[in-house]
Automatic annotation (TrEMBL):
It comes from the Eukaryota. Keywords: Metal-binding, Repeat, Zinc, Zinc-finger. It comes from Maylandia zebra. GO terms for molecular function: DNA-binding transcription factor activity, RNA polymerase II-specific; RNA polymerase II cis-regulatory region sequence-specific DNA binding; zinc ion binding. InterPro entries: Znf_C2H2_sf, Znf_C2H2_type. This is C2H2-type domain-containing protein. It holds the Pfam family zf-C2H2. The keyword Aminoacyl-tRNA synthetase does not apply. Residues 20-47, 48-75, 76-98, 103-126 form the C2H2-type domain. The keyword Amino-acid biosynthesis does not apply.
Length: 139
């Protein structure tokens, strides 16, 4: 991190130290600013309006993202291929697909797209599997 304050805010995510909590839903935030921005969702106040279709949004960021519907703008580019997306969350999900592989078990005929699923499955073949809860051993 280039600034100490940014590091401290980030560290709160790991330590749960000085987190701010939403009274409506309990979600936690590292800064008061982010909490207040989130609380607008519960208030129902939508003060940002699209000048093209009249849709209203809670935050300016949501309005900016929405405007891409009218302009066709897709600013979130995949780092692995040529595809672009209007929402960063869609791009992130797409990028995870690039990272996922085909993990085949060398002890049985099962294969997995996610390394975490493959790793959990591999444990079912080891001696450690005798200590797993029987209700969990569905791998």
């Amino acid at each position: 991190f280039s600034r100490q304050k940014t590091l401290k805010v980030h560290q709160r995510r790991h330590t749960r130290d000085k987190l701010k909590y939403c009274k409506e839903c309990g979600r936690s935030f590292t800064t008061t600013h982010h909490l207040k921005q989130h609380e607008l969702i519960h208030s129902g106040v939508k003060k940002h309006f699209c000048d093209q279709c009249g849709s209203s949004f809670t935050t300016a960021g949501q309005l900016k993202t929405h405007k891409g519907v009218h302009t066709g703008e897709k600013p979130h580019k995949c780092r692995h291929c040529e595809r672009s997306f209007s929402h960063s969350s869609t791009r992130n999900r797409h990028e995870r697909a690039h990272m996922e592989g085909n993990y085949s078990c060398d002890q049985c005929d099962k294969s997995f797209r996610k390394l975490s699923s493959y790793s959990a499955h591999k444990r079912s073949h080891s001696v450690l599997s005798f200590f797993l809860c029987p209700g969990f051993a569905r791998l």
